[in-house]
Amino acid sequence: MAKQVTIDLHAKRIAPDADIWIVHSGRNSQLLDFFEQNQLVVLEYPGLDLQPQVLGDDAAIRQRLRRSQAIRANKGLTRSDGTPILLTQFRDTPDTDVAVALRTVRHLTTRMKPGDLVVAPGKGSQSRVLFGEVDGMFDPSLTTRTPGISYADVPARSVRWLSTKNLKRDLPPYLQRYFEKPPAIARVPRDRFSENFYDHAYKSYIKDNTSWAVIDAPQYNGTDLRATIEPTSLVVFAVALIAAAESGDDYSTLNYSQIIDKYYDVSAFEKLAVSYNSPGEYPAKARDAVRALVLAGIISVAAVGGLSACSQPNAHVSVTNSEAPADPTNPIVERMINRAIEGAGGAALAEADAKGQRSHASVNLTAPAEVR
What we know:
This protein is an alpha+beta fold. The protein has helices spanning about 30-40, 60-75, 95-110, 175, 195-200, 230-245, 255-265, 290-305, 305-310, 330-345, 345-365, and strands at about 5-10, 10-15, 20-25, 40, 115-120, 130-135, 145, 150-165, 185-190, 205, 210-215, 270, 275, 280-285, 315-320, 370. Strand 5 (about 115-120) and strand 6 (about 130-135) form a beta hairpin.
């Protein structure tokens, strides 16, 4: 029976209008764990009470911000003399005292869109940085009380955290500099530097003319260099196999090593690296919207020993993407994977399967693409 394999790419499509937000977790980043545990971000404005009818009214928000400042200064809803802190006691006119806070509230309530990237840094180079996605529209009823503000509710925004183990020290300095801005919430303009935040948030994504995939080797313990040889060789082979298929040559008679020697070329990749800092990984960023996904697909099939079977007559690899089911790159990735596998000889694919299975067993070599 012909082998039929389905691969789920699990590749996020980054929309052209998606924003990147830096959200600080309290004045001294003391709320980072709170953010993670509760799947949200907050503004430490106690008693703000952002009811739906005031969201479009800057004057009403300014008035509530001034009351919130008084509530925080008194650490409660009453002053030291016992008198209540009432909304009517505060003016709603524009002034510098609440200008930044008003902009921050607007960011939280109306400007942050579902799917936008949220980056929450901790304090100090050894701290963690959380990466997540805004989850749904702003809900005025979603409020909470934080460890430092137990006397009144603060507004929150739901976030689905994607990556929570990144350390600030592991981010390049040009990304860390975005954490220096003082507002509680700041929108980061997207450019060729800031868009590298996506590399730390997602194992795989598609964006414009870029594709990204991280092939993990999480069981490498840093004590045996030999454990890196076969996983690295397999990644190199997969890159060469893609180039061989694109060349139009007949490479069916070449063995595993000959395919590497003749076709291995990294010029189509902006980044193709190996990091074995225990755990290990192979980050790959291609200069097109498909190549890194094709690489991940080939590795995922090899890791289960399926390349040889998929090269047989009437065999086929189908590609889906649960993160972007209708993405136009899905059928292109499918064609490229099948063409690469079908063009190779049985001996080369059998060696790749063997290395893939051993790599999976030894260091748990795993691509973001999943064989189903």
